[in-house]
From TrEMBL:
The active site is at S227 (charge relay system), D353 (charge relay system), H382 (charge relay system). InterPro entries: AB_hydrolase_1 (IPR000073), AB_hydrolase_4_sf (IPR050960), AB_hydrolase_fold (IPR029058), ABHD4 (IPR012020). Coiled coil: none annotated. The keyword Membrane applies. This is AB hydrolase-1 domain-containing protein. The keyword Membrane applies. Gene3D superfamilies: alpha/beta hydrolase (3.40.50.1820). GO terms for molecular function: monoacylglycerol lipase activity; short-chain carboxylesterase activity.
Length: 460
């Protein structure tokens, strides 16, 4: 049979003629369907998966040592952790959850009381204490044995971040004292030394922990770290071992291995959105402190940075004096310190976290350490875990608070071993600046100076 070009052309003509007879709205419907299918897969939406299971949610998976007393005596009693996490139906995507948290978040309304903290190297930190009323003494007048929770923010976050406000408010609502230890240069505080914070900078956490413990020696001390703050927390705990006054801790959505996280966040198109967004946040942070960044880093490179890695190459590694970016990532990752954690530690991560990949989770290291329980959930995004039809609460906040409550009521809280030599000088660590009220609209108001007990003794 011979090929007839004329008949082939006639066939195409008839096909096009038939397609032209279809109403135009059919084509829009087809394009809309294709677009929805693309977005459904691109955004990793799991609405139909949840629908088919009746939105019953998924159980929490635990990784722990078989002889772990922390799991057997503490976590096993946590009803929330042993329940199921059900995602808010209209946020059935790790990306929708994460974006919604950062742009909306629905944080509770309350005020902080600010305490300016001066480190031994001349740096300044803002310690924001939760206050539930206009009375500035509502925090400091609690019983001296009231538990204290120190919260460590993530990258470029401060106490105003929605996820931190959820955590701070609901932790304080249980009757605890709560303080957010803002990173250097964040929270509206200037950088007053040539030392900057980074993803593995533990000295500020160490200094704040020692100070808070010194001022409240009878109060059980707990820490919750989020994202990069979780990496800093785990690294700090591993560095200190038994030599820490912290009774227990929770690490939420930790990046664990910064090198793996760096590779992950530049791999896929959707991850690159987060990379660019976080880079923009770092550049805004640099602009706030341009004179120092210009003097100590490569300002042109900082402003042209297209990724976190670029920013770290032109700024972070130079400030911290690391030879390469990979050297910085390796030395500041918390994974090598997991084995040395000597206090009860709950780690919470979502397997669909679009920023801190599950590939970096140190499963085996967590399983070998009797003090660590790793709780992983199928969905949740990055620091989101919205629940309920109105997305008014974060599941991980409830889970973390329940763990700390059960731990506090048990006899498994860590007791610090005798310290032969302090890690950092504690004297003169707080300046005599007035406390500051940080209101919901970001305004600040000075309060009367409230001297510490130690200062009162000196004044007598």
């Amino acid at each position: 049979m011979e090929f007839d070009p004329a008949s082939s052309s006639n066939g195409y003509w008839f096909i096009l003629k038939g397609l032209s007879l279809l109403p135009i709205w059919h084509y829009f419907l087809i394009l809309a369907t294709l677009l929805i299918c693309f977005l459904y897969n691109f955004l990793e939406i799991h609405f139909f998966e949840d629908l088919f299971t009746g939105f019953s949610g998924s159980a929490v998976d635990f990784t722990y040592n078989s002889s772990s007393e922390i799991y057997n005596a503490v976590v096993s009693k946590c009803r929330i952790l042993h329940g199921r996490y059900s995602v808010t139906p209209w946020l059935s995507s790790p990306h929708l959850q994460t974006v919604f948290l950062n742009f909306f978040g629905r944080p509770p309304v309350f005020n902080y009381k600010r305490q300016l903290f001066t480190t031994s190297d001349g740096g300044t930190l803002a310690l924001d204490w939760v206050t539930n009323s206009d009375d500035s003494s509502s925090v400091v007048n609690k019983d001296e044995s009231t538990p204290i929770a120190i919260l460590i923010p993530g990258l470029t976050s401060d106490s105003s971040a929605p996820y931190l406000k959820h955590l701070a408010y609901h932790t304080a609502k249980r009757g605890w004292k709560v303080v957010v230890s803002n990173h250097r240069g964040l929270g509206g505080v200037p950088i007053t030394s040539d030392i900057f914070y980074n993803s593995g900078w533990t000295e500020d956490t160490r200094t704040v922990v020692n100070y808070v413990h010194k001022e409240n020696p009878k109060a059980p001390l707990f820490i919750v770290g989020n994202s990069v703050g979780a990496n800093i927390l785990v690294k700090y705990l591993g560095e200190e071992g038994e030599n820490t006054p912290v009774a227990g801790a929770v690490a939420v959505c930790s990046p664990w291995d910064l090198l793996i996280t760096d590779r992950f966040i530049t791999r896929a198109p959707v991850q690159k959105f987060y990379d660019k967004a976080l880079t923009g946040g770092l550049q805004d942070y640099a602009k706030l402190h341009q004179p120092l960044f210009s003097r100590l880093g490569n300002w042109e490179g900082i402003m042209k940075a297209l990724s976190i890695r670029d920013f770290d190459d032109h700024a972070t590694r130079l400030f911290a004096k690391y030879e390469t970016v990979d050297t910085y990532y390796r030395r500041c990752s918390s994974t090598p310190y997991v084995k040395s954690v000597s206090i009860p530690l709950l780690c919470i991560s979502a397997l669909d976290d679009p920023v801190c990949t599950k590939e970096a989770i140190p499963w085996d290291e967590c399983r070998l350490n009797k003090n660590i329980v790793l709780a992983t959930v199928k969905h949740g995004g990055h620091l989101a875990f919205f629940e309920g039809i109105t997305a008014s609460s974060l599941w991980w906040v409830r889970a973390a608070n329940e763990f700390l409550d059960v731990l506090h009521s048990s006899h498994y809280m860590h007791q610090q071993k005798k310290i032969s030599k302090p890690n950092a000088p504690l004297d003169s660590s707080i300046d005599q600046s007035p406390y500051i009220n940080v209101t919901e609209d970001g305004l600040v108001a000075g309060l009367n100076n409230e001297p510490t007990t130690e200062n009162q003794k000196k004044n007598k």
